[in-house]
User: What shape does this take?
Amino acid sequence: MSDHAVSRRAFLRAGGAVLTGTLASTSGVLALIAPSTSWALELEALDAHQAATVLQFTRHVFPHDRLDDAVYALVVKDLDAGAAEDPTTRRMLTDAVRRLDEASGGEWLSRSAAEQFVQVQAMEATPFFAKVHSTAVVSLYDNDMAFAHFGYPGRKGDPGYIHRGFNDLHWLPDPPDGASGPVPETA
Amino acid sequence: MDMYDNRTTFAADDDGVVVVIGSGAGGGTLANELAQKGVDVVLLEAGGLHTTDEFIADEWPSFSQLAWTDTRTTTGDWRVARDFPNLPAWICKAVGGTTVHWAGASLRIEPHEFRARSTYGDLAGATLRDWPLSADDLASYYDTAEKKLNVTRTNGLPGLPANNNFKVMHAGATRLGYETCHTGRMAINSVNKDGRNHCMQRGFCFQGCRYAAKWSTLYTEIPAALQTGRVELRTRVHVARIEHDDNDRVTGVVYFDADGRERRQAARVAAVAGNSIETPRLLLNSESSRFPNGLANGSDQVGRNYMRHTTGTVWGVFDKPVEMYKGTTMAGIVQDEARHDPKRGFVGGYEMETISLGLPFMAAFFNPGGWGRGFTEAMEQYRHMAGMWLVGEDMPQADNRVTLSSEARDAFGLPVANVHYTDHANDVAMREHAYTRGAAIYEAAGATRTYRTPPYPSTHNLGTCRMSERAADGVCNGHGQSHELANLFISDGSQFTTSAAENPTLTIVTLAIRQADYIAERMRARAI
Ligand SMILES: Cc1cc2nc3c(=O)[nH]c(=O)nc-3n(C[C@H](O)[C@H](O)[C@H](O)COP(=O)(O)OP(=O)(O)OC[C@H]3O[C@@H](n4cnc5c(N)ncnc54)[C@H](O)[C@@H]3O)c2cc1C
Ligand code: SF4
Assistant: This one.
């Protein structure tokens, strides 16, 4: 056994694994802010297959075709952390992955997107779906990579847009003075 | 000395003080106004002190820092009960109360709205009443409040400059022929004033204004009150109940301090300003042998007639970018629909005000529970969206009410509030009209698509201890004084007899200023 494997096993919990990926595009905004083009998520509770399945499931719930897996991995990270903390959550996630695979007569992941989606829809009323949804609706849209994708500057707006384009829309007529007000001179 | 240091402290058994519960729009203003008149005040606030340099320009972390997240429960037909069962309202728990999060829209209630029952008639299912006061009674107090808040477009102050979101609203509204459309009457400095900066168009008004350009009791009323040396502010103290004697006089309040220890503060007068959910909860939790249904609740009106405004949001999607998040959150208004015109199929009116949400809140509130392509296609348009919030008068109903939960308890073992709300048919008709007109504005400005977002957890909470001419119809009189205990006052939006179309805070502040005059006068006359 290599040193690497030993230290990895010592570092991770039993059953732990790593979910890895490579940024789909090295030219997009993401490549500019991501520390490297490949990413790795160390898992605490799920195995790599379960994590990959949950990631793909999340892609069906919130499908943004040009949003990188690296962002969806943040959802998996939060779900995995929840599973590590709480055995009920862990069982909910692992059972759901098993059910998806069983219903697909093999690996759900190897099915076509359309076939996968049928299973996702069938699970809409389950606690698993609700868990993925409620986690993703926060994690997926509350990070710098998502901000870059959707064009929201977040904290960069903290100083104020008074000199940075708060009124730079020019494809409609400007309101008359009476409806607007002066930009303060001391600004 | 720091602006938040107490320059004075009062003994627990000092029964000469006015105890004010809650430091938001109502309580913070009342405490300062009383102190300016030489009255001693103990100001009790459940939340902690977070100064402008601590504010976070990030929606979820800011929400965790400032919002009231202690458990509440919900029932009723409203969608909030399904989507956010433990978050019926969006309210702050912090020094300054919800004036830390508010957007600053500051409109006067119209004269006819104070006469809601006379103007609208008898609507089945609605408990409409006229207010026990008129617009004339409040006029000079509104003047004072507008000066205090530096409301734009009053007292010679300029309006705020138009941002992108407002430009879209204005273009569409003008094309539809709407006439009253401008950058609003906002409690946001349009020029440097009172030692506070002018607005820097940050767009994080809902997360606390780092520049203190937007009025909040946090950095206006409260430091001014402490400066007088007549006010002691106690933070992280949760008031559990109010006590009284056999003559129906309040004698003191019992609270849990930051370490969970039970304390008592004697009081000559108690004024409750915990916002319209905690205020009735506190009275209901203060039941006694003389007041078995809750303090000041002989009329059985405490907690009833809960109002939250008829609201909704419309988003317009455009070919070119809007970037609505740049600049003030409520950047402008259309007022033409605020009139009472039953020909539209409902009584009362509504305002249309721009709104923007950052990406995290957009995901959470755009269509709670939504998923799949329909949801993500909308999110992909984020940069190209303009937004407006619709806010109109909702009907008071006896069964829309705050009660004590029979099961859920807070950290101190006190029953939490359950909030029950179901729309009145008038509310449904008004919302539909407002959604349609809002979409028409964006279509006139060139929108390729519009979306409707359902009401958020309530930001405007009103009516649960309403003022009434007759004691049987409400909880307090036109001065917010309890019909049953002369030295107990309601000092927040719970007093509202009806909701009116306008955002409520200017009126809450106005009533607090007027109430301070009344309390000081009654104290001088030794009537309380
Ligand atoms: C996002 C947002 C935007 C808004 N925008 C506008 C706007 O543009 N215009 C407008 O008019 N209004 C607006 N509002 C509403 C406005 O904030 C409220 O109307 C106003 O702050 C209510 O004042 P209040 O005194 O009743 O309560 P609050 O300001 O909520 O203050 C109540 C305080 O009491 C404390 N408290 C409660 N219970 C206890 C207890 N038992 N013991 C001790 N302390 C207690 C709370 O912690 C809180 O600090 C907005 C609100 C939100 C959330
Ligand atoms: S937009 Fe203006 S009022 Fe709002 S947070 Fe920024 S500076 Fe304050």
Q: What stands out?
A: Chain A has eight helices and two strands. Residues 14-23+32-150 of chain A form one domain. The helical segments of chain A are 3-11, 29-33, 48-61, 69-85, 87-103, 113-122, 127-139, 144-150. The pocket of iron/sulfur cluster (ligand 2) is lined by residues A 160; B 188, 199-205, 209, 211, 213-214, 327-328 (CB under 6 Å).
